[in-house]
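Service request form, structural biology core

Requester: graduate student, group of Dr. S.
Request type: structure prediction, single chain
Budget code: on file
Notes: please return the result as structure tokens.

Sequence provided:
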Amino acid sequence: MRRYIIFAVMSLTLALAAGAGCSQIKQIFTGRGPASDLQGMDTPAQVLANEAEAYYREGDYEEAADLFQQIKDRFPYSRLAVLADLRVGDAYFKSERYDEAVLAYEDFVQLHPTNDAVPYALFKIGMVYHNQMLTPDRDPTFSAKAVAAFRRLISAYPTSQWAVKARPRLAEALRNLAAHDMSVGVFYYRTKNYKAAMGRFKKVLTKYPDVGLYQKALGYLRSCRVKLAEKDDTEKLPTSSERRDLVAPPKVENPKMTLPQERI
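Core staff response, request fulfilled:
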């Protein structure tokens, strides 16, 4: 039965180190931390961790999440709880339980702010939102959240390998936001709401100048100004009821009208 598969400790160490990219997570399995933290290789926490990792590798993310959560709940003072804090987020992420994944990663960051895996957790938060981004003609909420998450990572850990991986995803999210404003602006333009359209095109020019839509937005902005100028000129022209023929004298409604005679 796969539940009783016990992975070799060194094999598991390499797998988790590659996934999380952090020296402190390595210590959990290499035994480089205090010996009292591990209490031997066959501790209940270690067995649960091996089983959870086995399920994770096999793609049974729901079961893996449950076992990692058990480690958190039953062995909160074990150094394996640090691993569980991180891996439960990974299991939720893989099973597309995105809200729970974000909570797990945020908990990891709050509980272990100096851990080397914090940049990884921040990157995964950004990927939660990145994976849920919609097309530019729809709600841009997830794109905006992805931008905020990736910027948070890059600002805090600019030289991290995870910041390097985040930058192209950040560019994608920014382009998605810019494309959303472009699509709304084009809609306003086509419905002749030129002032509203100009607001959207200006936003693309000022907030997203480097995503490849600058010239397109600039062209629409100039066209909006032309359309508004034409509209203003049309509105200033007098209507037919306001015009007077300057050659012929104005008409008199009743030229033969006489005043009433005074009584003598």
